[in-house]
Write a structure and sequence with these properties.
Blueprint (H helix, E strand, L loop, with lengths): L17 H15 L15 H7 L8 E17 L3 E8 L2 E8 H4 L1 H10 L5 E10 L5 E12 L14 H6 L1 H7 L1 H23 L3 E2 L5 E2 L10 E5 L4 E5 L4 H9 L4 E9 L11 E10 L3 H20 L3 E3 L5 E3 L6 E3 H9 L9 H10 L10 H12 L7 E8 L15 E9 L2 E8 L4 H16 L10 H8 L5 E7 H9 L3 H4 L9
Parallel strand pairs: 3-5, 6-10, 14-15
Antiparallel strand pairs: 1-2, 1-4, 2-3, 4-5, 7-9, 8-9, 10-11, 11-18, 12-13, 15-16, 16-17, 17-18
GO molecular function: ATP binding; lysine-tRNA ligase activity; magnesium ion binding; tRNA binding
Cofactor: Mg(2+)
Catalytic activity: tRNA(Lys) + L-lysine + ATP = L-lysyl-tRNA(Lys) + AMP + diphosphate
Length: 502
């Protein structure tokens, strides 16, 4: 019997695609040659933006005598015999670099050709010049790899699909200008929101994301366990009840921009994790906060896209300027259904109307929910431009003040822009006795199987018992604001949306 030598164990590199294997070999070669492929620091003296700002116009072939040290990711390269060209990108700004045999020597030029790949982070030290074609450039005296990319960039002629772009947003940001622009647009909008509210005397606060009681909105929550206290807690579905506590405590104008979590479906306008602006203003009603919401949107549009009237990337023309119309929910639903619907319309009548129009109704739904479903199915897609749909059923709005003149409804509006709900505003319910009654009704619905219904929040009721002034409150979806500005789906406006694990 002859014995055979065991085969050597397979290594990770054995299964790598060729491009990854070649780049890893380059990394190993650099290390073997005593060259660090991931340096700690370099003598960077200027950003690419600063270089471009300093030399807006140079004549072809002009030299400046200005020596700089610049860095960036290599996104283009063209190697010729004695002169190589590359384009660096840093913070969205691009600049050409030139590697010349006469300047760096034969060994350094050979290393550029053999060691450098697209996607590498590069440091170049040299003179700012204009190339023979008039391109602003840095003519290298020396260069170095600052971070070796061992995975090749996605190629421009084979665009990533939407799923890949979302899963690998880091790669999306590298290769697609639209992805980088979305981040900038979002940042500009949020900065504007904070500025507008600051000008009106609002104070920004942070409230808990882990909450012991489900409340602030009607939605299915995420539930987790707080190990230290051995209790179940909810990821917040809204910061509302804590912001109202602030108003009780004397912070009369308060807001928060933060994440909310709702354990529901995901589609082009819904994400289980999303960002909301909520603000509350003492001695204001739902008309007052509607006006402020309009101002917030208009200012954010000017900051993010440059105007209140603009054309989105999908070609849709949006006009956010001027006053925005206000219409009655019941009137719109009645017109669309072809029958007069009022707060007194019975549940059976509403179900009959829904059935007539082919609208599916959950048997557990209350009258107000059915009425809102009729509106959603028959009216929402017909809404153009910004419009406030107002005066909602009392039984679906447990945190809202009853209308001062219309029985059976509350002082609430929903903001729609191009058929998409973008926010909601209230004249807030501040009577602790009525609020308790509403919570009890919600608890009954919850006991009947409605997992979205709120729980009784005794601490919030105690806060109201100290006295809360008349208050208007608003919640505006930041992700949907960006959808309004860009025409993109919600997963494009969120930098890292949740996706099902691979």
């Amino acid at each position: 019997m002859t014995s055979q030598s065991p085969e050597p164990p397979a290594t990770e590199s054995d299964d790598l695609p060729e491009q990854l294997r070649i780049r890893r070999e380059k990394r190993e070669r650099l290390i073997d040659d005593g060259i660090e492929p991931y340096v700690v620091a370099v003598a960077r003296t200027r950003s690419l933006a600063e270089v471009r700002a300093a030399y807006p116009e140079l004549e072809a072939g002009q030299e400046t005598g200005d020596k700089v040290g610049v860095t960036g990711r290599l996104i283009f390269m063209r190697n010729t015999g004695k002169l190589c060209f590359g384009t660096l990108r840093e913070g969205g700004i691009e600049l050409q670099v030139m590697i010349s045999l006469a300047k760096v020597g034969e060994e350094s030029l050979a290393r550029w050709k053999s060691d450098v790949d697209l996607g590498d982070h590069i440091f170049v030290e040299g003179e700012v010049i204009a190339s023979r074609r008039g391109e602003l450039s840095v003519m290298a005296d020396s260069w170095a790899i600052t971070a070796k990319a061992i995975r090749p960039l996605p190629v421009a002629h084979k665009a990533m699909n939407e799923e890949t772009r979302i899963r690998q947003r880091y790669a999306d940001l590298i290769v697609r200008p639209e992805a980088r622009q979305m981040v900038q647009t979002r940042g500009q909008a949020i900065t504007s929101i904070r500025g507008t509210l600051g000008e009106h005397g609002f104070i920004e606060v942070e409230t808990p994301m882990l909450q012991a009681v489900q409340g602030g909105a009607t939605a299915r929550p995420f539930i987790t366990e707080y190990n230290a206290y051995d209790v179940d807690v909810f990821l917040r579905i809204a910061p509302e009840l804590y912001l109202k506590r602030c108003v009780v405590g004397g912070i009369d104008r308060v807001f928060e921009i933060g994440r909310n979590f709702r354990n529901e479906g995901a589609d082009s306008t819904h994400s289980p994790e999303f960002v909301m602006l909520e603000f509350y203003q003492a001695y204001a009603d739902y008309d007052d906060v509607a006006d402020l919401s309009r101002e917030i949107y208009q200012n954010a549009a000017e900051a993010a896209v440059g105007a209140q009237k603009f054309t989105r990337l999908d070609g849709t023309e949006i006009d956010l300027s001027g006053e925005w119309p206000k219409v009655s929910l019941y009137e719109m639903a009645s017109e669309a259904a072809g029958v007069r619907l009022t707060p007194e319309t019975s549940l059976d009548e509403l179900r009959s109307v829904a059935e007539k129009h082919g609208i599916k109704v959950n048997p557990a739904w209350i009258a107000g929910k059915v009425l809102e479903e009729i509106f959603e199915e028959l009216c929402k897609d017909q809404l153009r431009g910004p419009i406030f749909v107002r005066d909602f059923p009392v039984d679906t709005s447990p945190l809202v003040r009853a209308h001062r003149s219309i029985p059976g409804v509350v002082e609430k509006w929903d903001l729609y822009i191009e058929g998409m709900e973008c926010g909601t505003g209230y004249s807030e319910l501040v009577d602790p006795v009525i609020q308790r009654e509403r919570f009890v009704e919600q608890a009954a619905q919850r006991a009947g199987g409605d997992v979205e219904a709120m729980q009784i929040d005794e601490d919030f009721l105690r806060a109201l018992e100290y006295g809360m002034p008349p208050t208007g409150g608003v919640g505006l979806g930041i992700d949907r604001m960006l959808q309004t500005f860009t025409g993109r789906g919600i997963r494009e406006t969120i930098l890292f949306p949740f996706v099902k694990p691979e």
